[in-house]
Each structure stands twice: as C-alpha cells, then as structure tokens.
Amino acid sequence: MLYREVGQYKTNYAADMAVFPILQDRIGIAVILLVAFVVLPLIGNDFLLNTVMIPFLIFSLAAIGLNLLTGYAGLLSLGTGAFMGVGAYACLKLTTFFPQVNIVIWIIASGLFSAAVGALFGLPSLRIKGFYLAVATLAAQFFLEWCFIRVPWLYNHSVSGAIEVPLRKLAGVPVTGPTATSLTRYLVVLSIVVVMTWVASNLVRGRIGRMWMSVRDMDLAAELVGIRLLRTKLLAFAVSSFYCGVAGAMMVFLWYGGAEADVFAIDQSFLVLFMVIIGGLGTLIGSFFGAALIYILPIALRMIPAAFGLPIRPAVAEQLTFVIVGVLIIVFLILEPNGLARLWQIGKQKLRVWPFPY
Amino acid sequence: MDLPYKIFVDPFVQMGTSPDLLVQTLWDGLVAGVLYSLIALGFVLIFKASGVFNFAQGIMVVFAALTLVGLHQHGVPAFLALGLTVVVMFVLAVGVERLMLRPLVNQSEIILFMATFGLTYLLIGLGQLVFGGDPKVMIAKELYLPHGAIEFKGLGGFVSLQKIDIAAAVIASIMVAVLAIFFQRTRIGRALRAVADSHQAALSVGISLEQIWVIVWFAAGVVALTTGIMWGARSEVSFSLQIIALKALPVLILGGFTSIPGAIVGGLIIGIGEKLGEFYWGPLLGGGIESWLAYVIALGFLIFRPQGLFGEKIIERI
C-alpha cells in the first residue's frame, strides 16, 4: 500500500534508469541520510559513534570493495586485509612527506597505491580461477604482511613498529590524531563512504559493471563477445583494491588512531569475505547488511549477559560468541544462501502486494 | 656485482662447503613437508568426494588433539582417550553431514566454503569452552611415541634427527599407504572414487552420497587426529596450529585439489623449498620469508600449470 510504484510514469530513459526510480526509495534514502548526517550526530554518544558506527561504515566500504571483485567480477580474493594495509601505510607515508595537504585527499589517494598493488597481484587471475585464485591471493596477503613488519621505512622507523597517526586538521578542526573528536571522524567517514558507495552503484550499473558480470557468469563467452579479459579482470582488482585501500586508511587514521601490522592479518580478509557472502554476493546494499550483522552481532552478544546481569566470565562469553556466530553462519546459509540482500528483496516484494497478497 | 653473487653463487658455495647443514635443512624441510602433506590430505579427501573446500580442516586438527589431551587430563587412560577421540571425530562427521551438508546440497561452492567457515568458528568456540584456550602438552610419552634425537657424525659435522620426526614420517607413509589401498581395493573406496568422478552417475548406480560423505569426513577427521598428535608432540597443542594449517593451501594448489599423490609431493616440495629458501636466501631479505615463500612457490607453479601438478586437466565448455 505504501511501497508501490503504480502511477509513477517515466517519460524518458534517463528517468527510468535512475539510481532510485521509485519515489518511496528516494524518500527512504533521504531519511536514512538525514538520520546518518543529522540525527545520529545530535543524539549519538561516543560509544555509538566510535565503537559502532565508524567501524560499521569502514567495514561496509571494505565489503563493497571485495564485493566488486568477488560478487560482480567473480574473482575470489583472500588478500583484502593486505590491500587495506597498503592503503593505510601509503596514507601514512603521504601525510608524512606532505603534511600540509588535506588528509582526506591523502586517504583517497592512498587507495591509488592499493589499486596498483592489487592490479599487480591480480595478474595471475587471467590463468587461474576459483579456489586456486583464492590461494594465489594468499601470496599477496602474506607477502604484504611480511613487508609491513620487515620494512621499517613503511612505519617511519617508529620504535614500536606501529603506525602512529599524526594530528591533521581540516579547516582548523582536528580530524585525525588523539585530539580529534569522534563526531568529526564520524562525519568524515560517513561522507567518504556515501560518495564512494554512490560511485560504486553507478559503476556496477554501467558498462564496466556489465563487463564484470559477464566475466563472472562465463569468462570464455565474455571473451568471445569482445570483452578483453585481462583488462576487465585487472580493472576489477584495481577498483576493488582502491576501495579496500581507502577503507584501510580510514580504519587506521579515523578509527584506531594507530595500528600494528597484525591489524591487516588474514583474519581481516576472512572477516570481510564473511560480510560479503552473508550480505549477498553481487549486491551493494548487501555489503552494508553483512557488515552490520558480522560486526555488530558480536558486540551485541557480548552486551547481552551484562544487560541481564548473568554471571558469565568475559572469557566464556567470548567463546560462546564464537560458537553462536559459527552456528548462526551455518543456519543462515542454510536458510538463505543468497544473503541478506535477498531477504531485503523478498521483503520489498511482500510490501508491494501488502495488504492484499494474491 | 655483489647482489647477484649473494643470490646465485654464495648459497650454493655454502651448501657445498658444509653438507651437514644442507642435510639438516633438507631433513627439517622434509619433516615440515610431511606434516603439511597430512593436513593437505584431509583437504583433498573431502574435496574429492564432496567438492567442499573444507576450511575447517586446520581447526579439526586442533580440535582432535585438544580432545585427546583434554580427555587424558580428566583421567582417561591414553589409549582409551585415543579411541574416544576417534568416536568424537565420527560424531562430528555425522553431525556435519546431517546438519550442514545435507541441507546445503546443490549450493554453489562458495556457499559450502563459507559454511565450513561457520564450522571453524563453532569448533574454535567449542574447543575453548570445553578444554580451555591455553596451550597443552601432547601426551606423547603415554602413546609410546619416541623422543630424543639420533645424531650422525660425518659430512664435516653432525646431523641430528628427532626421533619423533622419524616416527611422524613413518606413520604418515603408513597412513597414505592404507588410504591408497582403501581407495583402490575396497568396495567403499571404489564408491568414493565414483562419487568423486560424478555425483549423479554415482547416485544412479545406487551409491549413497550421504554415507560416502560421512565416511570421507570421518577419514579426514582421523587424518586430522594423526596430524594433531604428530604436530602436538613436536611443539604443543594450541590454537595457533590453525594458522599453520593455512600452509596446506599452497601445498594443495601445487599438487592439485583432487590428487592424493599431489598432496604428498606438493607438501614435500613446499616444506623443503621453504626451509632451503629461509636458510640460504632468507638472510638477504632480513629473514622471516618462510611466511610467504610457500605461497610464492605455489604461485610460480600455478602460472605454468593452472590445475596444479597432478590435478585433473581443466576443460571448459560453453
């Protein structure tokens, strides 16, 4: 009744192909943006912004990056963590050399370095497919991780071997470093994520996205209709790594405020892969759902015993979280193998015919 | 001209002048390779029969070893504990088949892969919950595993071989032989190979897929238990073993996902290559290259043989 496109006539192609062709969708996205940009900063406390929203957005961006590669181009990668790391270290080097330049520019630019590295390690993808490729990307993961530890130049020769985020200001307000408030960091992260999601949604609907999808569905056939495999696959690796790199730079500069190499370990790669698959392969909105579920679920689970005053030791709670998350993943895959995005679609369809389903 | 000398000449000169070190390094590589092979074997068994890339193999190793040690700590005699652990692995196999694989039948590979991730989390949590997360000492003595070392003089120095490593190599060979006979000679083995060839054809001649899956998961569980005992006896039983299990992945792509001999040969190549590389070329790069060398070796092989050394030829149809 409320969500129905009946009567919304499109008079030209551009209107028909708009990102949100349905009025209700446009209203919905406007409300979400309003909540994210205005309401949350007004009502949100430090915990909500710093522990929930900032990581959620950053993981969403990383998941979008991996989704472009795995969901749209069909190339399985386990090197996400390392590509995120490349972004973070590149950002550190850039802002060390040119401290006067706006940090947001460097966060975006560091994605370019990540993209270059990603394209380099994407080269084997022309010959290798499926799980073989996944293991090949592990080479990238472990090699880059080793570089992060063994090349002191990357972390500015700091004694601890960790990235120390310097203080950088944007229009006089500290954005990174210890004095930056969580509110400023949240707004910067949110803006970057919104813009990059918008870019990604246009990318996958256009020529490039269609090329990726045809390669995913059958690369041999795609080649026969004139798609250059090497270029398309490398582009997928580059764009995906760009997104991951920006996510990694934001993770260190706008969330942790300092990090060691083990932040970008293999666990991180798996975590992002979880989000992509649970959220739904080949859907952008699924990346947000997946990030929300995988990242926020353990936080919520940890808070449950405290909320009910149950006497559970933190260690036991941690182990129970592992068990519950594991079981939930399996149950979820059995119930809805196509991910949360599919549930969302089913829900929308139900809304369309409500209250008179036929 | 210094660097090419250090890369191409110096290591070989070192090998020539001190053969004892070379033999020692080769032996270390061989032993590491045997253990990688064992983990890879578990992967291959399951992948062949069900097409599932079982990420949980690594944690199954830890879980099996933990169960064994944990039972013994609760006062169960060593060999009874061993038997009980085998039972636990069987229950796990049945559980996985009933609750995970059967509802997920006909799903795409990546979904099944994901599901084994869920299983990994579940086993990590369960293992820590029941047996505690702290590292444990493997009950090597109670299981009559040898300890100590044999030392050889000669070759311009001496070479020491740990007895437990020799035992590991022997047991691994026996297990591979038993598995080979099982696959080639028995009724179930033939059924397994039929399933590996084609699920539908196997079904149509009356082979029960469910039964076969329980059997392969159980076999993989027993392989995991053996690996856990051997690796545990060399160092200790802890959850960090799970990371080492990732090393089995380059072994797999080197040997091919579907080949048991491939898993063995791949394991040995990776083990030896990695130890030689670390010992002779590692210092040039500042050490620690063991962590990624295996993957790069495998990647190099893959560029030339995308299906691994022994994998089935990939035929693509439109």
End-to-end CA span of chain B: 52 Å
Distance between the termini of chain A: 14 Å
Structural class of chain A: mainly alpha
> Residue-averaged pLDDT of chain A, rounded?
86
**What can be said about the biggest beta sheet of chain A?**
2 strands, antiparallel
Radius of gyration of chain B from CA coordinates: 21 Å
- Strand arrangement within the widest β-sheet of chain A reads 1-4
**What amount of the residues of chain A lies in strands?**
under 5%
| Count of helical stretches of chain B | 13
List low-confidence stretches of chain B: none
Radius of gyration of chain A (Å): 21 Å
| Share of helix of chain A, binned | over 70%
Query: Total number of β-strand segments of chain A?
Result: 4
Overall geometry of chain A comes to globular
Strands side by side in the biggest sheet of chain B: 1-2
- What oligomeric arrangement do these chains adopt? heterodimer
Total number of distinct structural domains of chain B:
1
Description of the structure:
By secondary structure, chain A is mostly helical. Chain A has a domain at 32-264. Helix content of chain A is 71%, strand content 3%. In chain A, the strands form two sheets. A two-stranded antiparallel ribbon of chain A has the order 1-4. A two-stranded antiparallel sheet of chain A has the order 2-3. Chain B is mainly alpha-helical and 318 residues long. Chain B is built from 13 helices and two strands; from the N terminus they run H-H-H-H-H-E-E-H-H-H-H-H-H-H-H. The interface between A and B is large, with 47 and 52 residues.
